Amino acid sequence: MAITDYDAPRTPAVEEDSLEELRARRNTPDSAKVDVDEAELAETYDLPGADQLDEELSVPVVAQQADEFRCTSCFLVRHRNQRAYPDRDVCRECA
Fold first, then answer.
1. Mind listing the pLDDT tens digit for each residue in 18-46?
2. DSSP string, 21-82
3. What does the alpha-carbon distance between residue 3 and residue 24 come to, in Å, rounded to a whole number?
């Protein structure tokens, strides 16, 4: 692993390719070819721990209570003692 000094001044890496080299590289038959095996693998790859559930998940929805407010920044419903300002609906975490 190479060590990189991020504080050092950066110099742009300029590749000086001739026009002929660029045209030759563009006209090669393998330049835009996609490996079929990689494309098929990407479509069939399953993330670990992402089990498919066949059951329907249901959560009871409770209406906003009189002592709660919805934060205008994070949109979470919070208790009124979490309000950062008495005149604005912003929670302490977002303030």
1. 778 778 777 776 655 555 555 555 566 66
2. HHHHHHT-TTTT---HHHHHHHHH---TT-PPP-SPP-----PPPTTEEE-TTT--EEEGGG
3. 35
Given a cut of 90, whether residue 48 has pLDDT beyond it is no
Contact (Cβ atoms closer than 8 angstroms) between residue 16 and residue 22: no
Cα gap 78→60, rounded to integer Å:
17
What is the DSSP pairing of strand 83-85 with strand 77-79?
Answer: unpaired
Mean confidence (pLDDT) of the chain: 79
Distances (CA, A) of 90 to 25, 65, 66, 67, 68: 56, 17, 16, 14, 12
Indicate the pTM of the whole model.
Answer: 0.40
One-letter amino acid identity for 34? Answer: V
Tell me the two tokens of residue 56. Answer: 């329907």
Residue 77 has a CB neighbour count (10 Å cut-off) of 14
